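> tool_call: predict_assembly(chains=two)
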Amino acid sequence: MNEKIIKKFEEIVGVEFVSTRADVLLTYSQTASLAVEPVIPAAVVRPANTLEVSQILKLANQYKIPVTPRSGGSSLQGEAIPKPGGLVVDLLRLGGIKLYENLRSVTVGAGVTYGELDKFLKKHDLFLPVYPESALVCTVAGNIAVNGAGPGSSLFGCIGEMVLGLEVVLPDGSIIQTGSEANPNAPGPFIRYAFGPDITGLFIGSLGSFGIITKASMKTFKRMKFFDYNMYGFDTAAQAEQFLVEVKQNDINSLFASLYSGEVLDLFMDMLSEELGFPSFEYSNRTVSMTIGRVREDMMKSDAKLACEICEKLGGKVLGVSEMPQQEWEGRFWNFVRASYAHGWHWKILYHHQTPTNSHKSVDIIMEVMDKYRFLGHTAGFHSGHSSMNLYPHLYFDPQDKEEEKKVVEAHKEIAKKLFRSGAVPFKLAEFWKDAIEDMDGYMAFLRFLKNSIDPNNIMNLGVLGGI
Amino acid sequence: MSEIDLDELIENLLQCRRCGICRNAVFEDRGFDGVCPVWRNSSGFETSFMRGRIQVALALLDGTLEKTPENAEALFTCTLCGNCTEICAAEFDPTECLEKVRAVLSDIPNDVRDTIAEKIMQYDNPYEENNQIKRDWVKEVGFEVPSTGDLLYYTGCTAGIRLPNIAKSTAKILKAAGIDFAVLAEEPCCGSVMLRTGRVEDAKKNAEKLAEVIKNSGAKKILVTCAGCLKTLRLDFPKLGIELPEILHVTELLQEIIKENKLEVTSLEKGARVTYHDPCHLSRTAGVYESPREVLKAIPGVDLVEMETTRETAMCCGAGGGLRSYDAELSKKMAADRVKSAIDIDAEIIATACPFCENNLIAGAALIDSSIRIVDVVDLLAERLK
């Protein structure tokens, strides 16, 4: 990138917010994604608003400069690693929260984090009920770009389900608004499927390949006040999986339901039980930790009773342990982060969705590959919507052992292939899935067609969305 | 400082998994409303908060990044306030690591760091003043203060030279409580800034000199009014292998004095909303949160109100870690940001318990044309003594 272009970026955002310094570029060469090779970009810009983002993309498009959008930098699967000679657009300056109380919606700038939004909504007794595990640092808009999930997803699905509309700057710099707000006369965001096909959906999980989300309009809900926290033990995976199916089929308001195998609970209890105040208890081969949430107490109690009945009918045991699910829900901003970093290992993750009754397949595949490559790790999962489980294996490695890191990367590829064949689907269509996906030529060709149509100069986050 | 084990330091730095919580986490349950005040008040690139600083440190240590003053800037644009350590989910102390990195990489040229250290070595204070003026305030207290005694009031460079009111107020309160104390005839600097900026060998020499002077004073207890002096004498000197008598911050002693009803305190003429700014080295580092608040509450008419971030999660004023010298403009912007937090809650007075914080908060208030009063806890108390 030559000085003339840098100067133009400086004219757009101000000298203070453009950097080509070696130290700064180094820090943008990677994100929270571990075991991913860093790439030094040519420049970083920090725009303040949508107009500046638009001017930046116009210029990048004119000069065919590869662009990597970035906000929290907390993504885990290589979604925001720059390209050599490329430009990183850091979106954290795009703040602003606007509440539409009667429309039950809120609009946030691309730099607004979940923590910031939750504090704001709490004052109005509202919440956006899906919390990614990195909620303290990740932005809502960035999370939409990866279609994230976390506590709350068991009932409300992935974050994409909460989106009512997006403001997006396309690769050529033009600005579009999706959802009801596309109508300039609309009083605000109130429906997503407004003007023909779901254009909003095109950008959800797009990993920044089709444009930059600059504002997101989200559904809000009344904050729940009544919760039941319990754990349910089962001798077999099949029983536990069927329990999760029946929880859904009976409309039990499971806000967050996690499924743990015995050895993973062993690990978590070893690491954190004392710190988080978990009692020691007899857990089973498979244990479900579940938070039921309702805005009314009678409904919560009715759901809790039914969950116990279903558990016992399936041959399971109601464990009567509340501390762990309570910490999972009440401590949702902290405890997952803490669990990820309490041990000394670095890890590579492979988020994917399975059906509840296929969850054991993921566990078996991951354990088999970990045994083969002889490294440590774990996997657990949580209900992530209508009928899906989000599973998240952590493959551990020593960051100072490059051979081990290489082995983890190889194992990761192997797991992706096996998972795909087992019926799993990507949580995020990150780059590494391109070698795992088979017999989907038509779909991938269509995706490429879309990419080429929207971004003919191929400037936006090239190669990230399934390698496209 | 005991020898730094480089392998251990790198292992610790690699505990950072780059999650980024140390940037701007808003975590209401624990009182965080943002984390890094440098990120908030600068152009906000990744190098302006701990995640980026650690990446830069690792790259400088392994040679990926050339050891130039510009590339090392991220190591020094940090006040070492410790708010990132407070929230970090990993098993290491990023603030302590960064301080060690500064020491390990002290071969990278840094004029500001070196100039301060040289001034301290030459003048016994960082202000290039004749060090004897550090005791001039004693002439104004109206009674004799010996230079030896059981209780030694170690004034510190900023209270001694820049904000002598704090020293005079301390003397007035001690006198009123009937407590005898001494002030050194000539007081060497504690060397805090040398330790923070990586000049460890010089700091050690300076510490040995100070320890000798204190030993000769016969002190059995040392009283300080500066949070930086407290951290250095209480926590760093033992790591340098230097034993001193017990170190007390003045607010810790005052809490006891007040409990024992040794002071008669009159009411403020008009009630005032007072907020307390926690100095990082007194609060997060030394764990002293309640004593200064108890002192303030003992003044009738004080309506003590808390800022959005307070105690363990309080935002730094921007003065420490060598930043005030390294980048005065940034440091003052951070102070102005802290002053705005007090204005947001309609506070009329910001009380603090560190002359370095007071000095910078005054500069911050000036930057935004605020007339809010900024004062040390001891000044406020001394004004109300009968």
